[in-house]
Amino acid sequence: MIAHAVEAPHRPEDAHEGLSKQSEISNAMIIDDLDASSNIRNAWRLCSSNQVEEVKLVLLLIPIWLCSLMFFAIISQLHTYFIKQGSMMIRPIGPHFQLPPASLQVPVGTMIIIAIPIYDQILVPTVRKFTGHPTGITVLQRIGVGLFLSTVNMVVSALVETKRVSVAREYNLLDNPKAIVPMSVWWLLPQYLIMGLSNTFTVIGLQELFYDQMPDAMRSLGAAAYISIVGVGNLASTFIISAVQAITRKSGEKWLGDNLNRAHLDYFYWVLAGLSALSLGVYVWIAMGFVYKKERC
């Protein structure tokens, strides 16, 4: 038996009125004359209310998935241009050791390790007193905070890169792509720390959202959907870089050339900040209308 199925009205005007009140997905529950005359249920034409609700749950998560792509496109800079910046700055630790540029990723993990217990043990109980929510803030709010921090991170990165290029100009190093700019690599530390903090909010929030809000029988798909954001986000970063290169090449000055001292990496970071802010705005609009699974029951 099909739960909550309704028979289609017999009068054409009533049928039109009834269908206008249903979403396209909910129409899958309506029994029309063809379904009523058949003794066999066609799963491609007629669905139970549970099946319809499960499809709605999945579709609700797709916009969140799309809005999270810019977050991971920005994270991909951690493994590319952030390292390139660090390789062109002063990196000594003591008289005989140079800090490897890639090792600056260590503060990202360190920040995550420090921030998670602070979030769980201090922030959640404190915010809970004001919001009354068991977790202090909702999962979508947690993701949104991380997306906002990701945007801030690109602004900070752009400002630091502008400073680095100005120092290179001051010491006449613009045309020397292998020169070490007399500026400490620790100037990059804030953007690494903000990256770790944004991960604490968004990455964990997305994992929780895609697991908890998926239909019970599709939770493994939810985990896969989260992981796919990482890959597609990195692909989006590649697409953005290619687009920026193609557009700026027409003006005769590539923003992302081999010589970062002559390139405009700071402009690229501003582009990422703008795209991230736009994505955040769309995310907030979507999140305001999001209905959690428990609230739909």
TrEMBL record:
Any Pfam family matching the protein: PTR2
This chain's source organism reads Rubus argutus
Q: Where in the cell is it found?
A: Membrane
Q: What Gene3D superfamilies does the database record attribute to this sequence?
A: MFS general substrate transporter like domains
Keyword annotations for this protein? Membrane, Transmembrane, Transmembrane helix
Region span, Disordered? 1-20
Q: Where are the transmembrane segments?
A: 57-82, 102-119, 139-160, 192-211, 223-247, 267-292
What is the recorded name of this protein? Uncharacterized protein
- SUPFAM superfamilies (UniProt xref): MFS general substrate transporter
* Molecular function GO labels: transmembrane transporter activity
